[in-house]
Design goal:
With 175 residues, the protein is an alpha/beta fold. It is built from 6 helices and 6 strands, in the order E-H-E-H-E-H-E-H-E-H-E-H. This is YqeG family HAD IIIA-type phosphatase.
Length: 175
């Protein structure tokens, strides 16, 4: 296992810390974002006022937001339809199927997109495989759904190796 495959390009506290200005500075015109524990808490599908403002700010600036999730269509659609967000379901991260589908479906150039997620094992690894930049965020809630727990166990081992080789991942308030 190459530890570099799990190393994010950036690490920020929360997806909402990504400002229009900072995204533009890095040439980003589209944000692919994981759903659970990244955009919304897995156990709170209504989102927060902060999340709604972030989506509004990006939309007003012409920066496209696309949810790229491993969840079912029903789950993703129910979570995002009230926010009018485009989405790709059954993304099969850490593989590139969902990211590639989103790139093609929404006509986004790889150099102008970033994948944002809370998991090294799925979101960051998929971004590396797809050849796009990645941003790791802290999970919105500290406890995971049962289906995420095995990934978190593996992730702890990977984080230990990253710390040993590169030092701790430092989360900032922006990129």
């Amino acid at each position: 296992m190459r530890i570099e495959n799990y190393l994010p390009d950036f690490a920020v506290e929360a997806v909402y810390d990504l400002t229009v200005e900072s995204l533009r500075k890095h040439g980003i015109e589209a944000v692919f974002v994981d759903l659970d524990n990244t955009l919304i808490a897995w156990n709170n599908p209504d989102g927060t006022p902060e999340m709604k403002q972030w989506l509004h700010d990006l939309r007003d600036a012409g920066i496209r937001v696309v949810v790229v999730s491993n969840n079912t269509q029903k789950r993703v659609q129910r979570a995002v339809e009230k926010f009018q967000i485009d989405y790709v379901y059954w993304a099969f991260k850490p593989f590139t199927l969902g990211i590639n589908r989103a790139l093609k479906q929404f006509g986004v150039d790889k150099s102008q997109v970033v994948m944002v997620g809370d998991q090294l094992m799925t979101d960051i690894r998929a971004a590396h495989r797809a050849g796009i930049r990645s941003i790791l965020v802290k999970p919105l809630v500290s406890h995971d759904s049962l289906k995420t727990m095995p990934n978190r166990l593996r992730e702890r081992r990977v984080l230990k190796k990253i710390r040993e080789k590169y030092g701790p991942i430092n989360y900032t308030k922006g990129i």
